Amino acid sequence: MKTLSVITMGCSKNRVDSEHILAAAEAAGWRIVDEEEVFSKGVDTLIVNTCGFILDAKEESIEMILNGVEAKKKGLVGELVVMGCLSQRYREELPAEIPEVDKWMGSYETDSILKYLGIRKPPKSLVRRHLTTPSHYAYLKISEGCDRHCSYCAIPSIRGRLASVPMEELLEEARGLAAKGVRELIVVAQDTTDYGRDLYGRRVLARLLSELEKIEGIEWIRIHYSYPTSFPKDVLEIMARSGKICPYMDIPLQHSSTKVLKAMRRGIDGPSTCALVETMRKAVPGIVLRTTMIVGHPGEGSREFRQLLDFVSKYKFERLGAFQYSQEEGTWGAKHLPDTVRPSTKQKRYEELMELQSSISLDFNRGRIGTDERVIVDSWDDERKCLVCRSRLESPGVDGEILISCPDRKKGPALVGKMLDVKITGADEYDLIAEMR
Q: Which regions in the chain score pLDDT beneath 70?
C-alpha cells in the first residue's frame, strides 16, 4: 500500500484543496499518514501545499519544503511534490533554486496532481473529503479566485478571477460532511460575499446559507472572509433570524481613513465603513466582528493612523488582528506606490494598535463572566487537564478558547465533539474559563 502525506501551509482554503487530494488517494487505496509520521517513519509521497500571500507565509512554506528535502535525503521521503500559491507565484524561479523537488504544481492543478500520482479523479457526483480538522467541524470552500484588485494583495494574480462552485455541488459536499459527523461548517473563499455572481448573475450567499441550514446534522454555520464593499444585507437578515448561522462575521476592513482606503483600492470610504459596522451591529444584536487592519500603508500619516485608532476605539471589535504593510511583487501597490513609511514607524503603530485592541478584547471577555454559553468541545488538553472549547462567538484556530477543567483522563477525550452547556467564570484578553452546568 502506497503512503501519502499532505502538509498544508497558510489558509483554510488550502486545507480544503489538500483534503480533496487526500480523499481521492484514500479511495484509490493509498494509506494517509500525518506530518509527524513523515519525519519519523517516512512516506512514499509528500506533498507540501504552500502559501505565498505575505513574506512570513512564504518563508514558512520555504522552510517546510526544505524540511521535506532533508527528509528525502535521509530516505524518509520517496517523492517530494510542491503545490499551491507559492509554487504558482514563483514557478519559474523555484525549480532552479530547489532542484530536489520532484514536481512543482500550481494553485489550480489538483487534477494534474492526481494524474501525476496515478490516481483517478472521482466524479463530481462523489465529493469526498479526508478531514484534517477534528471530525466535528470542516471548512466549505464556496469559490476560488477574486475579482477585487486591492493595492497590497497578490491573490488575484495567483488564484485568478472569481470562480464559484455550483450550489448543488456545495450542498452535496456539505451533506457528505454532515454524514461524517461534521456539526459546524465554516464557509470560506477569497471573498464569500461575491459568491455566485459569475454563475447566477447575482450574489447568492444568502440563498446558499438558507440551503445549508436545511441539512440535518449541521448545527453551526460560520462565515469567513467577507468583503465590505457593497456588503449584501440579505446575509445579515438571514443571520439575524437563523438558529444555525453564528452571529459572527469575519470581515477584513483594513483601515478607516478614506485617504488610505482609496490608496488601497478598496472601493469604499471611511464614512461608508463606519455605516456598515453600525448596520451590522443593529441588524444582528450581539454579533461578533472579526477584522484585520494594515498599518503603514502608503498614504498613512500620523493623522490617518490616529483616525484608525479612534475608529477601533469607537467600534470595539471583538476580534482584531493587524499586519504591517509590505510591498509584494506583482501587486498594484508595488508598481505604483512608493513604500514611504519607515519600518520603525510601522512597528510602533502596530504595537500601539494591538495594545489598544488588547484592552478591548479583555473588556469584551470580562463582560461575558457569569453568562451561560453553549460550547462545542474541540479537544482535551492532557497537560492542562482541561477541555478546550468554543462557543458560537469563536472560530477555530484564530480566536481564543473556552477552557473547562476536566482531570478525568477517560471522560475528557470522550467529550470531544460534544456540545455542552457551560457558565463563564473567568477571563483574560484571549481565553475564557468555564464550568459545566
A: 53, 124-127
For residue 49, the cross-strand partners are 8, 83
Residue 200: φ, ψ to 5°: -115, 0
Rounded distance between C-alpha atoms, residue 404 and residue 436, angstroms: 7
Backbone φ and ψ for 68, nearest 5 degrees, come out as: -65, -40
Point out which residues pair with 288 in neighbouring strands.
248
Pairing label, strands 31-32, 432-436: unpaired
**Buried b / exposed e across 239-278, counting CB within 10 Å, b at 16+?**
beebebbbbbbbbbbbbbbbbbbbbbbbebebebbeebbe
Residue type, 319: R
- The whole model's pTM is what? 0.92
Instruction: Evaluate the CA torsion angle 290, 296, 298, 303 in order and state its sign.
Output: positive
The span from the first CA to the last CA of the chain, in angstroms, equals 48
- Angle at CA of residue 145, ends 143 and 147, nearest 5°: 110
pLDDT for position 127: 64
Summarised one tens digit per residue, pLDDT across range 240-252 is 999 999 999 999 9
Type and span of the H or E element at 333: helix 332-336
Q: Would you call 218 helix, strand, or coil by DSSP?
A: coil
Place of cell 500550481: 106
Residues listed for the chain: 437
What SS3 state is found at 272?
Answer: helix
SS3 134: coil
